[in-house]
Design a protein that fits this description.
The protein is an alpha+beta fold. Among the domains are: 167 residues, Beta-Lactamase, CATH 3.30.450; 156 residues, Heat Shock Protein 90, CATH 3.30.565.10. The protein contains 12 helices and 13 strands. The strands form 3 sheets. A 6-stranded antiparallel sheet has the order 2-1-6-5-4-3, sandwiched between helices. Strands 8-10-11-13-12 form a 5-stranded mixed sheet. A two-stranded antiparallel ribbon has the order 7-9. A hairpin with a 3-residue loop joins strand 12 and strand 13. The longest helix has 54 residues. It is rod-shaped. About 2% of the residues have low confidence.
């Protein structure tokens, strides 16, 4: 229904309807003019004809023609013009009549004279009078001329008016029929013309609608016709091109501006976060350094061994502060996308074995059984420096929290292919206690410690898992932690080399 209403409002329909209405009005006007003018013109024409006939008849009687010649001429005139001519002398003797039934003529004359019939004067002068007579009794109409010839004879000429009325009706019917045919033909022609005329307008409307939606892909098809619509199409194409270029430039500038704003916002956030983290985490080491330094200055302990212990504490806390600040800076760069990765193809199994070798002292101290489940060569594509940090964080975390379960204290490092997404999955699991469900998501935050009773002797900074999270987010790879039946498993995924 909405589409039909839309079509009725279209230029094409309006043009089509206007042309059809104009043609219909013209036909109706012709019928009206024919009804009014044709009869008047007919009366005007017949009036002039009977005048001329009157003059001829008067001339015949004034000439030297004999009565037979005059009668023949009068019959010829009556036949040619479909007249009834009646002439009587001064003594009411019939001098000539074209109708064998003399009573019909006399009835007409008597009807007019007795006013039994309605009449209207068409023309009148001193010699003749022309009237239109409507005989209601016999339901006939006549044009009647009554005149006096120069010789004193009375002349009557009657013309039946019925044929003209019938002619008007017939001609009106013919006009209506012709009008209907013309209207149908015009409707077809109008439909074609309106379609051809509105096609470029519809196309231009479609183009401007797309332009309003910032779609500049459609252009007007330029034709050879040099008219206003073609010129409008050229101008719209030019405007579309310029708008497309301008909007593209605006978008590029807007993207650059957004990047600059985002960059500035990131830097501000990074600076605020860094200051907040450093100020929070450096309170304890600074306080320790300050306390032990004051003890040295005030010679709280005079023996060499105590002073050496104080100095070692200050040095140890300074190293921890240095490590913390470096790790925080690295974490900030990773989280805010400021670190570029030097990706390359390397053997992840070899890297894992190297990390285990570095942590071997701690493994042996805790008497941990470590197991590596992997092929000799598993190639991955990543930055080996950061992946080593991930593996190291997982492994040292497992070493700290491993406990004996069923007589076994074990860490297992497994490398396998994830067939679902065609990536390499590395997992580090240890026997021990599970992580409470409410802590599984929180442990990835910076400085979060599951065990609040842990002391500073563990040596952790509390941002190791946060670094893992930042590194994996940069690679857009999966990572996480799972509680096992007898322990915990940490895992992450790496991309396989593209050429393999």
């Amino acid at each position: 229904m909405a589409k039909i209403k839309q079509n009725f409002k279209s230029v094409r329909f309006r043009l089509f309807a206007t042309m059809c209405v104009v043609i219909a009005v013209i036909v109706l006007c012709l019928v009206a003019i024919n009804s009014v003018v044709l009869e008047s013109f007919y009366l005007y024409s017949k009036t002039n004809t009977v005048k001329e006939v009157y003059k001829k008849i008067n001339a015949y009687y004034n000439s030297s023609y004999n009565s037979n010649s005059i009668e023949q001429e009068l019959r010829r005139i009556a036949f040619n013009n479909n007249f009834d001519i009646f002439i009587k002398t001064n003594e009411n003797i019939i001098a000539f009549s074209t109708d064998k039934d003399l009573y019909s003529i006399m009835n007409i004359i008597s009807g007019v004279e007795s006013k039994k019939s309605e009449s209207s004067t068409i023309y009148s002068d001193d010699q003749i009078s022309i009237e239109k007579v409507n005989d209601k009794e016999n339901n006939i109409s006549y044009i009647l001329l009554e005149g006096i010839l120069d010789n004193g004879y009375e002349l009557f000429i009657s013309i039946p008016a019925v044929p003209i009325e019938e002619s008007v009706q017939i001609s009106n019917q013919a006009l209506i029929l012709i009008g209907i045919i013309i209207l149908l033909i015009s409707a077809i022609i109008s439909s074609y013309i309106s379609k051809k005329f509105t096609e470029p307008i519809v196309e231009l409307n479609d183009i401007t609608n797309k332009m309003a939606k910032l779609d500049f892909s459609k252009k007007y098809r330029i034709i050879d016709t040099d008219d206003e619509i073609n010129e409008l199409g050229k101008n719209i194409n030019t405007m579309s091109d310029k708008l497309e270029i301008t909007i593209k430039q605006l978008r590029e500038n807007n993207i650059e501006l957004e990047k600059d704003i985002e960059e500035k916002s990131k830097i501000d956030d990074m600076r605020k976060q860094f200051i907040s983290d450093v100020s929070h985490e450096l309170k304890t080491p600074i306080a320790l350094i300050q306390g032990y330094a004051e003890g040295l200055i005030e010679n709280v302990n005079t023996d060499e061994e105590s002073r050496k212990f104080y100095a070692e504490v200050i040095l140890d806390e300074s190293n921890k502060m240095d490590t913390l600040v470096k790790q925080l800076l690295e974490l900030m760069k990773l989280e805010y996308g400021k670190r570029e990765f030097n990706n390359k193809t390397f053997n992840i199994t070899e890297l894992i074995k190297e990390v285990i070798r570095k942590c071997n002292v701690m493994i042996e101290e805790k008497n941990i059984n470590i197991k590596v489940v992997s092929d000799e060569q598993v190639l991955v594509e990543a930055d080996d420096f950061y992946i080593e940090q991930v593996v190291t964080n997982y492994l040292t975390n497992a070493i700290k929290h491993v406990k004996e379960v069923n007589g076994v204290k074990q860490i297992e490092v497994k490398v396998e292919e994830n067939t679902e997404n065609n990536k390499i999955r590395i997992s580090v699991s240890n026997t021990g206690e599970n992580i409470p469900e409410e802590h599984l998501e929180k442990i990835w935050g910076r400085f979060y410690k599951e065990d609040s009773s842990r002391n500073r002797n563990d040596g952790g900074t509390g941002i190791g898992l946060a670094l893992v999270k930042a590194i994996m987010n940069n690679y857009k790879n999966d990572y996480g932690v799972i509680n096992l039946e007898n322990g915990v498993e940490f895992y992450f995924e790496l991309n396989k080399p593209e050429n393999i």
